[in-house]
Amino acid sequence: MSQIDKASRRQKIKDRSRTAVAGTSAKPRLCIYRSLSQIYAQLIDDSGSTTILAVSSMSKENKELKGAGVEVCRTVGRQIGEKAIAKGITTVVFDRNGFRYHGRVKALADGAREAGLIF
Asked: What is the pLDDT of residues 17-69, one digit of tens each?
């Protein structure tokens, strides 16, 4: 399967899932992006089109972490969960952004759940 096919396939899955997944200010959307070397997570309020908070494996507090392995992703999930709880957000809608729910994506979700987020 070529890269173009993979990218268009993920875009179709992403478009299909976004019809059902939307974030509000009370229940924002936890959107993730997984690249080959990094992982990114954002809490997004779709009603106002604003990003409430964002954490990535490249954040200042994650300078000691190397790569984007499962443990790094779990740490990023814990961080976004702790920051969301500090802002008073307890429930979110999980948007896997067209990626399969396994490996690094699942680790990030588990880390966020460990921190106390409900989704």
From this structure: 777 777 777 889 999 999 999 999 999 998 888 999 999 999 888 877 777 78
Q: Which residues pair with 94 in a beta bridge?
A: 30
At position 84, the amino acid (one-letter code) is: A
Burial of 102 (0-12, 13-18, 19+ CB in 10 A): exposed
Whole-angstrom CA distances from 31 to 4, 5, 64, 119 are 23, 23, 24, 12
- Of the options 3.90.1150.10, 3.30.430.20, 3.30.420.100, 3.50.50.60, the CATH number for the domain spanning 3-115: 3.30.420.100
